[in-house]
Specification:
Helix 4 packs across helix 5. Helices cover 28% and strands 50% of the residues. It contains 10 helices and 22 strands. The chain is an alpha+beta fold. The longest helix is centred in the N-terminal third of the chain and has 37 residues. The chain has a 22-stranded antiparallel sheet that branches.
């Protein structure tokens, strides 16, 4: 009986100790991350902890002292590289981080809220000289946590989700200029390190920006934006974006303009396969309306799809690495190296295909339907081990290394309309074949000889 009581007591003691063990584990995990951040340009300005038996909250304020180190840290994990000028925009920024977590060891989720609390030294000094009232307004906005990223993060599988706090702000400057910004329902989820994730999906329901200056107004509205990024390395990534509607309007000027875009899609990817890399870019929109004092045009169903394959992976990666380095500042030496690496990449040979570039319908002034055009092509750059030497002697010596097969199909009504704007097109028409209400141009380039529909170009 006594042994049973002792066992029960020991068990209860262990259960009672679980929150303490969990707290130590979570605290150590967070401290390890803070130690890492200290090595990449961040310093702690404030660190305060409030802990109870079952839960802990911690407030940390970081000041960014070395933006160059921090940006380099982000670039290690990201396929997109940050431009050099971003350093000046970040130096001296203070970030507030609030962390909440359960002390129970089987709960591995953190609640994190990140808020910029001050601007960089450069931005603050510039605003201080130009508009102190606006600086005070912005500082008050930041310090009241006007911008907040709320993140739920699992420290075991490194998956996260969260949202950005809605923003709705209006401000009137001394000269009467008014600005109105709205951002609502911005959500995201992903996997990996939050500042440089392996995967991240984002959705924003509404973004509005209105600027009124005297009689002129600029307004932009973006509705239902979504994006997705998945990448394993600089040579392998997938990025896409979609917007249901974009509207930009300028009114009260000499040339009022209204641009309306519906269902815009974009996709870009790089995939490494063995010794080669394949690049792909696609874009499309359902409809674009452009109305101004001297233009009224509607484009329907635009599509673009380009593919580059059989590209030497090693040469491609060396070029990308150099372009990243060049963002820190161009020099004559870097320019020469970029040129050399581009030529080296071409010397290995690769193929570029434009599988689609066209618009189904073009409508002028709301009534004249011109139909559209479609362009397809294949550019083949032949492998040439002597290309570097040929380019040094004369770029024209590389001409035999290019082969082109392309087809352009243009609606007759559209071609005739464009001919009134550019008389040269009337002369080009002698090369065309007419079929089913369209002019067709089949272009070939081989061994430096170019033909259109079998006719040699002069």
């Amino acid at each position: 009986m006594k042994k049973s009581i002792i066992a029960v007591v020991v068990f209860l003691l262990l259960v009672a100790l679980l929150p303490i063990i969990g707290n130590r584990f979570m605290k150590q995990t967070i401290n390890n991350r803070i130690t890492e951040l200290k090595t990449v340009g961040l310093e702690i300005k404030k660190d305060a902890t409030d802990s109870s038996y079952l839960a802990t909250s911690r407030h940390i304020e970081f000041i960014l002292k070395n933006p160059q180190k921090f940006i380099a840290y982000l670039n290690i994990s990201a396929h997109k590289q940050s431009p050099a000028y971003i350093n000046a925009m970040l130096h001296g920024v203070v970030l507030g981080v609030d962390i909440k977590y359960s002390n129970l060891p089987f709960v591995k989720a953190l609640e994190v809220e990140i808020s910029p609390l001050t601007f960089s030294d450069g931005i603050r000094d510039s605003l201080k000289q130009k508009d102190k009232d606006f600086l005070r307004y912005l500082q008050k906005f930041l310090q009241s946590k006007g911008i907040v990223y709320h993140i739920n993060y699992n420290i075991i599988d490194k998956k996260f989700n969260g949202y950005m706090k809605d923003i709705q702000q209006k401000y009137t400057f001394k000269d009467g200029t008014k600005i109105d910004i709205e951002l609502s329902k911005a959500n995201f989820n992903g996997e990996g390190i939050v500042v440089a994730p392996k995967m991240m999906d984002t959705k924003i329901k509404v973004f509005h920006l209105n600027i009124v200056q005297k009689a002129e107004t600029f307004a932009m509205a973006v509705e239902k934006f979504s994006s997705s990024m998945h990448f394993d390395a600089k040579s392998t990534y997938l990025s896409s974006a979609r917007v249901d509607k974009i509207n930009m309007r300028v009114s009260g000027s000499r040339n009022d303009t209204d641009i309306d875009v519906k269902k815009l899609n974009f996709h870009a990817s790089a995939i490494a396969k063995g010794k080669n890399t394949q690049l792909n870019a696609r874009a499309s929109f359902e409809q674009v309306n452009i109305i101004s004092n001297n233009l009224n045009i509607m484009l329907k169903k635009f599509g673009f799809n380009m593919l580059a394959n059989e590209m030497d992976k090693e040469s491609y990666m060396k070029l990308i690495e150099l372009l990243v380095e060049a963002k820190k500042g161009y020099t004559p030496q870097i320019n020469r190296e970029i040129h050399e690496r581009v030529v080296t990449l071409f010397s290995k040979g690769f193929v570029v295909k434009i599988e689609k570039l066209g618009v189904e319908n073009i409508i002028l002034n709301g009534k004249t339907e011109l139909h559209g055009f479609d362009f397809k092509s294949k550019f083949k750059f032949l492998a040439d081990k002597d290309l570097v030497q040929k380019i040094k002697l004369s770029p024209l010596m590389a001409a035999p290394d290019l082969e082109v097969n392309a087809t352009l199909q243009v609606a007759v009504a559209l071609y005739e309309y464009l001919s009134t704007k550019s008389p040269m097109l009337e002369r080009v028409k002698e090369y065309a074949k007419e079929k089913n209400g369209s002019y067709i141009f089949e272009m070939k380039v081989k061994d430096t000889k170019a033909t259109v529909n079998g006719k040699a170009l002069y």
